[in-house]
Amino acid sequence: MAAAATMAAAARELVLRAGTLDMEEEEGPLGGGPGLQETLQLGELDITSDEFILDEVDVHIQANLEDELVKEALKTEGIGEVPQVEDLHLHCEALDFYGLDIQESENIASLHNQITACDAVLERMEQMLGAFQSDLSSISSEIRILQEQSGAMNIRLRNRQAVRGKLGELVDGLVVPSALVTAILEAPVTEPRFLEQLQELDAKAAAVREQEARGTAACADVRGVLDRLRVKAVTKIREFILQKIYSFRKPMTNYQIPQTALLKYRFFYQFLLGNERATAKEIRDEYVETLSKIYLSYYRSYLGRLMKVQYEEVAEKDDLMGVEDTAKKDILGAEKPCARPWENTIFTLGTRGSVISPTELEAPILVPHTAQRGEQRYPFEALFRSQHYALLDNSCREYLFICEFFVVSGPAAHDLFHAVMGRTLSMTLKHLESYLADCYDAIAVFLCIHIVLRFRNIAAKRDVPALDRYWEQVLALLWPRFELILEMNVQSVRSTDPQRLGGLDTRPHYITRRYAEFSSALVSINQTIPNERTMQLLGQLQVEVENFVLRVAAEFSSRKEQLVFLINNYDMMLGVLMERAADDSKEVESFQQLLNARTQEFIEELLSPPFGGLVAFVKEAEALIERGQAERLRGEEARVTQLIRGFGSSWKSSVESLSQDVMRSFTNFRNGTSIIQGALTQLIQLYHRFHRVLSQPQLRALPARAELINIHHLMVELKKHKPNF
Question: Residue limits of the Vps52 C-terminal domain (predicted)?
């Protein structure tokens, strides 16, 4: 029984310990309440004290369980054999009431009450936590509802703001302020506030039209007011612009001043174009009609007065390169003085080429009445430049004004420009065509061509394409005429008969001089803007002139005179060409080759009379030596002796006569000097070759070799005969 009592006591202690641990676990997370903070008074049952060692309890329990009386008692109560300590927990409730000590009943009751209180506290905490969880769930759903409501309110706010903005724009566009009405009705059109309010009126009219297209009913409320304001504005603008246009018609009026003033009010026409097209068309037609008449009248008058300051004597049909150079005579047979201011012939460029220089090209236009008072006269190309520079300047200004004021571009601007300037351009073309029909001044026509080419480039830089067609039409008149005049000159040279030109002279011929001046003029002009067709025509003219020079040279009886004539003409043409054309030009190279060939031939011809025997012997001897027949020179001792003595006795006089003959034959002293120097150089070379021939073994023992002149002495003596200029 004692063992059973001991085992029961141990079981109760285990149960109490388990309960205490459960209560501590529940107390920990909750933080403890008022009931849980009370301390349980377990006395000897406190198994949490340090004095109680659980391992020893297990040993005692195991020892008591092995007691025979305990085993019997357990069998009597029906619990059965519990062989292990671990199975004690499975039977704690069955053994709870066995062997309980009556003295511990109060503690057990107190423990029970405390456990019950803890359960109540825990239940209340569970209820509080459940309520709190429910409240949290409710709050979360409320937050979601509030978020949805906030999003919906935000969308409604944006929609209302958008609607407010649209309505504000609509109202602002439709409302007509009193300032606008006052300015349109009362303010002069030249005041800035009228222009500002006109722009506002145009914007409102455009807004009303747009809203009417969308079916906005509110437009009907302001349509009447806007229409009346529009009519008033159109009336005032129409009167103002027409008044400006009519002011162009006053005599001696500089139309560019009111035209520039109109540009400040270019919005007026834009307003008419957008609100009253009929009035806009009326103004445009009135402008076109007025300005076209003004330009036509101005240019017709200017052109007529300009032609009165042209040179009285101009090139005629008979002023061709191959025509005989005879002075014109009057009806009484007296020679008429030449009135041409550009030297003596229409084939000379002179200072006429300055008209296409950058400074002269855009110089101020000529004033005819000023030129008449000063008795000044000008060639046709100067008049052409002045006329077309005025046309270019006014056309560029007019085109830019049309584009800016009438708000047009591209083909529309081109058509409107020609509506204004078309009659003037047609009149100018007819006048040019009429003048060119009787024009035979090729240089003037060629200069006009290059003036047009340069003016076309200027118009392109100013971004004015409206004159492109006009420039093409002008060139279509100038190029054929230039080619015709050039072909007429070519034909005149080709058909020239040298026998009909009078007496022959070895000096440069006037036809070749004409060609040289004419060709150099065209080449120098063409170098700025090269044209292949021009070079082809000049090539044809050069061929005919070369043939003409050969035909005239053939009229001389001696070859020497022929060569002198050819050299004089080639030298003259080359000199004139080199003054204006580039050194590497085709014409310069061609005449340089011809001159060199004829000069070499003339030098040989010049040395032939005094030194012909020496030349012949040197050539024959060199040929024999080259063929290996030098032994044949032994039979030439008498001839060699005669040549040595003849050269020694006559070379000085021959050289002096040669020099005088050259200087008499050539008009260009520089060319004559060059020929003399070439002849003396060739003479020295010839005598040096003679020395080499005499040094051959066959002639080395010749006694006359002692009479040979030292080559260096000869060179010194020949230098004395070289003329200096």
Answer: 289-603
Task: Give the mean pLDDT of 521-548.
Answer: 87
Of 505, 487, 485, which Cα lies nearest the Cα of 325?
Answer: 505
What whole-number distance in Å separates Cα of residue 191 and Cα of residue 197?
10
Is residue 660 scored above 90 in pLDDT?
A: no
Residue 6 · residue 64 · CB < 8 Å: yes
Q: Once rounded to an integer, what is the mean pLDDT over residues 601-630?
A: 89
How far is the CA of 390 from the CAs of 175, 258, 295, 385, in angstroms?
52, 19, 11, 8
Round to whole Å and give the CA distance between 79 and 83. 12
**pLDDT of 547:** 92
Indicate the range of 42-46, 138-142, 572-576 predicted with least confidence. 42-46
Alpha-carbon torsion, ordered 653, 656, 660, 661, to 10 deg: 60
Q: What is the 3-state secondary structure (H, E, C) of 344-371?
A: CCCCCCCCHHHHHCHHHHCCCCCCHHHH
Q: Which residues contact 12 (CB under 8 A, 6 or more apart)?
A: 45, 96, 100, 104
Number of residues assigned to the chain: 725
Coarse DSSP helix, strand, coil percentages of the chain, rounded to the nearest 5 percent:
75, 0, 25
Collect all residues with Cβ–Cβ distance below 8 Å to 499 and sequence separation of at least 6: 555
Helix (H, G, I), strand (E, B) or coil at 448: helix
Q: What is the pLDDT of residues 160-174, one digit of tens each?
A: 888 888 777 777 767
**C-alpha pair distances (Å), 711 with each of 558, 634, 686, 714:** 33, 24, 11, 5
Q: What is the DSSP string of 164-227?
A: HHHHHHHHHHH---HHHHHHHHHS-TTSHHHHHHHHHHHHHHHHHHHHHHTT-TTHHHHHHHHH
Distance separating alpha carbons of residues 661 and 676, to the nearest angstrom: 10
C-beta separation of 174 from 218 below 8 A: yes
The three-point CA angle 694-696-698 to 5° equals: 95
pLDDT, average across residues 483-492: 92
The greatest distance separating any two alpha carbons of the chain, rounded to the nearest whole angstrom, comes to 192
Instruction: Output 172 or 493, whichever has higher pLDDT.
Output: 493
**Helix 380-405 to helix 411-436 angle, to the nearest 10 degrees?**
170
pLDDT for residue 118: 92
CA 92 to CA 29: how far, in whole Å?
A: 28
Report long-range pairs for 636-642 (Cβ below 8 Å, ≥24 apart).
636/699, 637/699, 637/702, 640/694, 640/699, 640/702, 640/704, 641/702, 641/703, 641/704
- Asked if the model's pLDDT at residue 498 lies above 80, the reply is yes
CA trace torsion 180, 181, 187, 193 (10° rounding): 0
C-alpha triplet 256, 297, 471: angle, nearest 5°: 80
pLDDT at 266 exceeding the cut of 60: yes
Residue appearing with tokens 């392109």: 460
Which 3 state secondary structure label does DSSP give 637? helix
CA angle, residues 371, 372, 374, in degrees to nearest 5: 65
Burial of residue 254 (number of CB atoms within 10 Å: 0-12, 13-18, 19+): exposed
Q: What is the mean pLDDT of residues 514-518?
A: 90
> Mean pLDDT, the chain, as a whole number?
81
More confident residue, 56 or 159: 159
Distances (CA, A) of 128 to 31, 132, 135, 208, 723: 14, 6, 10, 69, 142
Distance CA 512, CA 322 (A): 9
Structure token pair of residue 310 = 């042209």
Q: Closest Cα partner for 640 from 599, 595, 696, 589?
A: 696
Give the predicted TM-score (pTM) of the model: 0.69
The pLDDT assigned to 239 comes to: 93
Dihedrals phi, psi of 620, to nearest 5 degrees: -65, -45
Percent of the chain with pLDDT over 70: 81
Q: Which residues pair with 529 in a beta bridge?
A: none
Categorise residue 683: left if φ over 0, alpha if ψ from -120 to 50, beta otherwise. alpha
